[in-house]
Amino acid sequence: MAKKKLSSAQKKIAAAAPLKDKITGADFKALKKENTDIVEFLKAISQKNYAQADKYLQGAVESKLKASIDRAIKNSK
């Protein structure tokens, strides 16, 4: 039986599968928002819409910082 070649997206999904059980609903929503902000930031930069890009970059940085703080609080308990 020949092995089916996986696309790069399928490889990333397969690599992240073990993490799926460790991510809570709130963490997943935060991660999804962060990824959306980064994609929108890149779109705005490519369209030279710097004010919009700044908004999305700020959102991504804030969510990343909040996640780091939340993780530090959980680990300190």
Account of the protein in words:
The structure is a single chain. With 77 residues, this protein is mostly helical. It has one domain (23-76). Helix content is 81%, strand content 0%. It has three helices and no strands. Helix 2 packs antiparallel against helix 3 (50-76). The N and C termini lie far apart (50 Å). The model has no long low-confidence stretch (mean pLDDT 80).
Give a quick precis of the structure.
The chain is 81% helix and 0% strand. The chain is mostly helical. The chain has one domain.
Tally of helical segments: 3
Q: What percent of residues adopt helix (DSSP H or I)? A: over 70%
The figure for the number of domains is 1
What is the radius of gyration?
A: 17 Å
- Unreliable segments (pLDDT under 50, ≥5 consecutive)? none
Would you count the extended β strands for me? 0
Q: Determine the structural class based on helices, strands and strand pairing.
A: mainly alpha
Largest sheet: none
User: Secondary-structure element sequence?
Assistant: HHH
The span between the termini is 50 Å
From the spread of the alpha carbons, the general shape counts as: flat
How confident is the prediction overall: mean pLDDT?
A: 80
Strand content: under 5%
Set out the fold topology:
Layout: H1 8-20, H2 25-46, H3 50-76
